[in-house]
Structure to design on (228 residues):
């Protein structure tokens, strides 16, 4: 029987955030951001294993307490794609195992959205991702001016987790340095496949800018209050 393995690439530095400390280690409600991300994955009964990929020279990870079931892989690469490819190789997963790649900085993933992905992808021949239909009007711009309005029909904002069979994903990431690979789904698409779209949630955003940290903290605090 195939396993479901969550793989979290966390070897990046988050240069857009503008902090000397990688954003995955910034404190959020008293704990590192990455810990909140791991909580929902480790708490899901449908996920068998959880592994986090960090840089070989990471100086921060060992300074925090993490969920006991997390496997640490110090094989991070120069890019997200390389970190995922290296992590897959280190896991030595069976080809039919499902791998759910999740952004370290998407700390507000809800258990409901995660379970929806597991249920909807199921035994899909290709796999799938969480994503949000584009609701806002989309503008294309250059040098601070609008160049065109882009029709939003059929446009989706990709989220994570992105769930694919280990063998197919490893094949797709053989050329991990390809700049056309911006996420796991794009790598699968380059093989000629069409991953499944599973409706996600707006709260499953990626902490990218300093203001995002406060918003994530408010969301997590509100959820904790509802559970109390």
């Amino acid at each position: 029987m195939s396993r479901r393995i969550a793989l979290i690439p966390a070897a990046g530095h988050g240069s857009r955030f503008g902090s000397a400390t990688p954003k995955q280690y910034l404190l959020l409600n008293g704990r590192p951001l990455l810990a909140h991300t791991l909580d929902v994955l480790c708490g899901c009964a449908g996920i068998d294993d959880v592994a986090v990929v960090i840089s070989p020279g990471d100086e921060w990870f060992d300074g925090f307490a993490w969920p006991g079931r997390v496997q640490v892989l110090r094989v991070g690469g120069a890019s997200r794609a390389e970190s995922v490819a290296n992590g897959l190789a280190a896991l030595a997963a069976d080809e039919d195992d499902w791998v759910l790649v999740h952004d370290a900085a998407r700390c507000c993933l809800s258990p409901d959205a995660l379970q929806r992905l597991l249920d909807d992808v199921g035994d899909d021949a290709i796999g799938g991702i969480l994503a949000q239909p584009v609701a806002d009007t989309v503008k294309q711009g250059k040098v601070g001016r609008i160049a065109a309005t882009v029709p939003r029909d059929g446009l989706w904002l990709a989220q994570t987790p992105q769930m694919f069979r280990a063998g197919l994903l490893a094949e797709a990431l053989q050329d991990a340095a390809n700049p056309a690979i911006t996420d796991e789904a794009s790598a699968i698409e380059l093989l000629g496949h069409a991953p499944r779209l599973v409706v996600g949630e707006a709260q499953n955003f990626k902490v990218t800018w300093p203001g995002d940290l406060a918003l994530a903290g408010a969301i997590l605090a509100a959820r904790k209050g509802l559970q109390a």
